[in-house]
Write a structure and sequence with these properties.
With 460 residues, the chain is of the alpha+beta class. Helices cover 29% and strands 19% of the residues. It starts with a strand and ends in a 16-residue tail after the last helix.
């Protein structure tokens, strides 16, 4: 295992520290490793620091360095690393690395993007075998630890009664609202929208073509979207039809979440995730912040990448509270003068003609809870709401300061499904379409011939 750290900032690896956006962590990392490091408790951070590092620059011209991370600190949506380069190993031209790039699981295109990957390869042995370093003369400890285990959930539920008791036992504060989500496999599914899903090698499946997905579905089914006033409305409808979007379904009904946790993977442990948020932080379908984030779906990838967020180095960063109004206004104006942001404003004005070009840069990278219109029966029946993910936004599996996350493990799924059916929570009511109702009724009343021996029957 090793860390591959890539940046576009020339000379960054001479400073001894660097700050990554949390969204760039684990890009181009295979699914098994990424799922292991989804959350970053202290023990996971300690494990990562034990892996050797390859410090590289975007492109193929600049030399790479070998070293070790000495500390990792989470700072909001940032990861601040401090590191030490190995003084015994001189800079290595990337042209020397390139012939063994495949052996190091370095893909050509990933050298064109700032990111931090964790690779399942032995960096030092590969470099030594290629005669790029001499391990015999180096005092290097090669770490080959196993991947960290994800935290085990403290509470395990195996009956509907236990689950309801747990939910009712939690005292809700008046200013909090709670939502739920069910995962049928607690080790497989992550708190990320379908648009952000990656293949087994860590490559995005859909994100690069988000603007095309959005337009193509409308072109093919324009009549279905004729009543939608906002881009958010269209994304909700697209989500309903299983198109990958930047929305993550949640529900205000815990029994619906329990149904989804049990409806598939019957032999696998599922989980319920609870999200607790300040009521005042929840947005509605006509929210300006929701419009800003939703309309990112219409920007091509290259325009999203050109948005400059003017991120300051952590050592000179000035908090918003310390900035004067004039400083904040000047920063907002500069941000909104960028060509990609002006185009984003144009999209927003198509649905809100009086919208002013005063987009706050931090809003575009947020995860916000949105209550949408109940524009179809499925949203109504599932008491649906959504988490809307901004540009490169990441929701930590352990929660954030704004969104508290807790988990309940679910076992004995078949029994729970039968108990839910007694409360009229089943495929027919959760997915209220005639074909689902027909399927449910057919399965419920299917003829089950009793198994009896001939000896049990009277002969006429």
């Amino acid at each position: 295992m090793y860390n591959l750290l890539v940046t576009s900032m020339e000379g960054a690896w001479e400073n001894g520290f660097y700050e990554y956006d949390r969204s760039r962590f684990l890009e181009y990392t295979n699914e098994k490793i990424a799922s292991s490091f989804n959350s970053l408790p202290p023990e996971h951070l300690a494990t990562i620091t034990k892996y050797p590092c390859l410090f590289a620059y975007e492109g193929h011209e600049l030399d790479v360095r070998i070293g070790q991370i000495t500390s990792i600190k989470e700072r909001g949506r940032k990861l601040l690393i401090e590191f030490a380069l190995d003084a015994n190993i001189p800079p290595i031209p990337f042209s020397s690395i390139k012939p063994i790039a495949t052996l190091l699981d370095i893909r050509d295109w990933e050298m064109n993007r700032t990111h931090w990957a964790i690779k399942d390869e032995n960096l030092l042995e590969r470099l030594s075998a290629a005669s790029l370093i001499n391990l015999t003369n180096q005092e290097i400890t090669i770490e080959q630890e196993n991947l960290p285990l994800n935290h085990e959930n403290e509470l395990q539920i195996s009956t509907l009664q236990e689950f309801v008791g747990k939910i009712l036992s939690v005292e809700k504060e008046n200013d909090l609202e709670v939502f739920y989500r069910g995962h049928s496999d607690k080790t497989r599914y992550k708190l990320e929208p379908s648009l952000f899903r990656k293949d087994k090698d860590g490559n995005y499946l859909y994100l690069d073509n988000e603007h095309l997905l959005y337009r193509e579905l409308i072109v093919s089914n324009s009549a279905d979207f004729s009543s939608d006033n906002y881009t958010l409305d269209r994304l909700v409808r697209m989500q309903h039809y299983s198109l990958p979007t930047r929305l993550l379904d949640i529900t205000s009904n815990p029994l619906i979440a329990l149904y989804f946790a049990c409806k598939a993977n019957s032999d696998t442990e599922g989980e319920i995730i609870t999200f607790s948020l300040q009521r005042e932080s929840i947005k509605y379908f006509d929210s300006d912040v929701a419009s800003c984030i939703a309309n990112l779906a219409r920007l091509p990838k290259n325009e999203k990448q050109r948005i400059d967020f003017f991120d300051e180095p952590s050592e000179i960063k000035v908090t918003e509270e310390k900035k004067t109004k004039a400083q904040r206004d000047e920063e907002i104006a500069a941000f909104n003068q960028q060509e990609p942001v002006r185009r984003l404003t144009h999209f927003i004005r198509e649905e809100k003609s009086f919208f002013e070009p005063k987009i706050i840069k931090s809003d575009l990278r947020r995860v916000v809870c949105v209550k949408s219109k109940k524009s179809n029966d499925r949203i109504s029946s599932q008491s649906g709401a959504f988490l809307l993910f901004g540009l490169d936004a990441v929701l930590d599996e352990l929660g954030t300061t704004d969104i508290k996350v807790e988990r309940i493990s679910i076992t004995n799924k078949s029994k729970i499904l039968k108990e839910l059916d007694l409360l009229n929570i089943n495929e027919s009511t959760v997915f209220p379409y005639i074909e689902n109702s027909a399927k449910y009724v057919a399965n419920k009343y299917v003829f089950n011939k009793p198994i009896q021996s001939v000896a049990n029957h009277e002969v006429d």
